[in-house]
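Lab notebook, bench 4. The sequencing result for the construct came back, and we need a structural model before the next group meeting so we can plan mutations. Quick request posted to the team channel:

Model the 3D structure of this chain.
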Amino acid sequence: MSVINQYYNRINEIMTEVFDKEADNMEKASQILADANEQGNSIFGFGCNHAGLITLELFYRTGGMVTINPIRAPGMMLEISPPTMTSEMERIPGYGKIILNNVPCKKDDVIIIHSVSGRNAVTIDMAECAKEKGMTVIVVTNMNTATSVTSRHPSGKMLHDFADILIDNHGDHGDATIKLDGFDQKLASSSTVIGAAILNAVTARASEILWEKGIKPPVFMSGNIDGGDAYNKAVIAEHKDNIFYM
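Done. Here's the predicted structure in token form:
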């Protein structure tokens, strides 16, 4: 079997496991996002480095929620050279609180934090700070990895310790999935594919909950189809009080 087929099969296995075993937590997360939209609270997303790709997946995206705000900060999104600096920066205690304290978030807002290991200081500080502010914390992590490594936070706690809703991405230990004969390092991570599927499904379900209650879901239309620009301009204006990226 080719590596291409091995990866396809492993992703299907993980995806099936996630959508089976995490269904209840995904439903709870969807309800939290729907409630936030209905009640006029704000939604934020964060991840360091490649984990942050999931935040970008949810942000300013066709079919995605207009009201999800990405949290971006220097050194957290692989935008600096050398990129190895970002691995050092996500381990700096206190930086996560600095970041969140400069975001217009408040009590009863929601934050989605994605981290495969959940061990580094920035995401843990951010989750702890969010809890202190009275926010709801949704965590997407890899429990196979998170339960086999030690915390890099002074408290000794892990990201999942601060989760109000915890969604396990069921990835392999260390995230990579494919083993070559005679080569120790595994290939091809799963967290981006699986994380995007989890949270696109969650936001879609949140929109469905709103629609079932007679509330028009705040979602983007593609700007590359006729009418898209006008539609998006209108929906952004309608939800401007909960949008901080414009």
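The mean pLDDT is 97.
Will bring this to the meeting.
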